Amino acid sequence: MILDEELFKRKANLSSIDKMFRTLSQRVWPSRTVVVRQKHTLPDLPYDYNALEPVISAEIMQLHHQKHHQTYVNSLNQAEEKFMEAKEKNDLKTMIALTPQLRFNGGGHINHSILWQNYFPKGGEPEGDLLKAIDANFGSFDTMKNGLSSSAVSLQGSGWTWLGYNKSTNSLAIATCANQDPLEPTTGLVPLLGIDVWEHAYYLQYKSVRADYVKNIFKIINWKDVADRLATARQ
Amino acid sequence: MLRTISQRLSSRCMSLRQKHTLPDLPYDFNALEPVISAEIMQLHHQKHHQTYVNMLNQAEEKFMEAKEKNDLKTMIALGPVLRFNGGGHLNHSIFWQNLSPDGGEPEGELLAAINKDYGSLENMKNIFSAATVAIQGSGWGWLGYNKTTKTLAITTCANQDPLEPTTGLVPLLGIDVWEHAYYLQYKNVRADYVKNLFKIINWKDVSGRLVAAKQ
């Protein structure tokens, strides 16, 4: 339920409709918060599979989107289904046993949904408030890039490196998460920019040389999207 | 006086510590085709395993330097690097031996143990496959031996965590499900890779490890 609301808010930016939905469901079905749960769906890419070449090949984009992300979506829906069935039976043990699956597949869905928006074929540079924040927290854009890169390259196993926003301190931070652990539920940081270093994100093209992939990724970052996320987080 | 001399000598011996080296494969890079491509074998051995060896040597070097200075914080901080690269070296060294172009089938003591603990080879393979395919992220599936209960066990470890230091089980047979182990050939279909891997298991090596563990 929480995942649906977040994604809906992000897409439509219509918080008043969101409030109305919640009030309506509480009035009509006061004892239940979820009735007609919507299934998660694979978001479309905002560009063609080959749009990010030569940085990321069309083959990787297609597999990454249609196989890996789709699988997280399918498995997440299944896990939520089972969770709701267990909840109806008050089967707490099963509900708890399902949380790793919810985290892994829910995290996979959240992370990749952000990732596709974080990319942009023409790349660019950070500006305005985002650039100010980067300079304030890291000294310079280059220093931030180096920090993010070395974190991504040295991550052991599968995971993500994030540029995130700390609401409490009003500052940017670099953090890593293992596997598909989603940044905000895990660390409290709001995700701005993610680098996926699971091998499926780069291996077909870069083989074992993760450093080259990470270096090249900076050529296709959608800094407007990153800036938007910061602006939203600061509201 | 003698104690001081022996202390000086032993610290010299520590600095003449042998470096870890990449073990040779017992077969050519293309020997495991079509199950595992030559391209994967070469990258896996010469790049991934070699990197674990190099990084392990570096980490051990730094650890010894820190020890010489009694720098406990640094020694502790090096733990994860030692575990990751040491585990990577241990795991892959076992893996290359676990595989063979013509590995046969389990027999003798090994087959008896499999039948006793799992009912049949088929059942063991099914449980092993399911556990390994289900690993979230990077890691290894293991058939191991529990010395205390004298039984076989199937378990998984994350990343390069080595089986015995992590669980106490003696490693008999490992399945690497880091994506680099199969992606170039099998893409996201890990299940096909794991299924096919059973065609190239060196069951004599697995047996040998069980016998050694029982001693």
UniProtKB/TrEMBL annotation, chain A:
Homotetramer. This is Superoxide dismutase. The keyword Repeat does not apply. It is found in: Mitochondrion. PANTHER family: SUPEROXIDE DISMUTASE 2 (PTHR11404), SUPEROXIDE DISMUTASE [MN], MITOCHONDRIAL (PTHR11404:SF6). It catalyses: 2 superoxide + 2 H(+) = H2O2 + O2. One of its GO terms (molecular function) is protein homodimerization activity. Its cofactor is Mn(2+). It holds the Pfam family Sod_Fe_C. Residues 39-118 form the Manganese/iron superoxide dismutase N-terminal domain. Keywords: Manganese, Metal-binding, Mitochondrion, Oxidoreductase. Residues 126-229 form the Manganese/iron superoxide dismutase C-terminal domain. Its EC number is 1.15.1.1. Mn(2+) binds at residues 64, 112, 196, 200.
Automatic annotation (TrEMBL), chain B:
It is found in: Mitochondrion. Mn(2+) binds at residues 44, 92, 176, 180. Its cofactor is Mn(2+). Residues 106-207 form the Manganese/iron superoxide dismutase C-terminal domain. GO terms for molecular function: manganese ion binding; protein homodimerization activity; superoxide dismutase activity. SUPFAM superfamilies: Fe,Mn superoxide dismutase (SOD), C-terminal domain (SSF54719), Fe,Mn superoxide dismutase (SOD), N-terminal domain (SSF46609). Signal peptide: none annotated. It catalyses: 2 superoxide + 2 H(+) = H2O2 + O2. Its EC number is 1.15.1.1. Keywords: Manganese, Metal-binding, Mitochondrion, Oxidoreductase. It comes from the Eukaryota. InterPro entries: Fe/Mn_Superoxide_Dismutase, Mn/Fe_SOD, Mn/Fe_SOD_BS, Mn/Fe_SOD_C, Mn/Fe_SOD_N, Mn/Fe_SOD_N_sf, SOD_C_sf. Residues 19-100 form the Manganese/iron superoxide dismutase N-terminal domain. The keyword Mitochondrion applies. Its main location: mitochondrion. One of its GO terms (cellular component) is respiratory chain complex. Gene3D superfamilies: Fe,Mn superoxide dismutase (SOD) domain, Iron/manganese superoxide dismutase, C-terminal domain. Homotetramer. Destroys radicals which are normally produced within the cells and which are toxic to biological systems. Destroys superoxide anion radicals which are normally produced within the cells and which are toxic to biological systems. Belongs to the iron/manganese superoxide dismutase family. PANTHER family: SUPEROXIDE DISMUTASE 2, SUPEROXIDE DISMUTASE [MN], MITOCHONDRIAL. This is Superoxide dismutase.
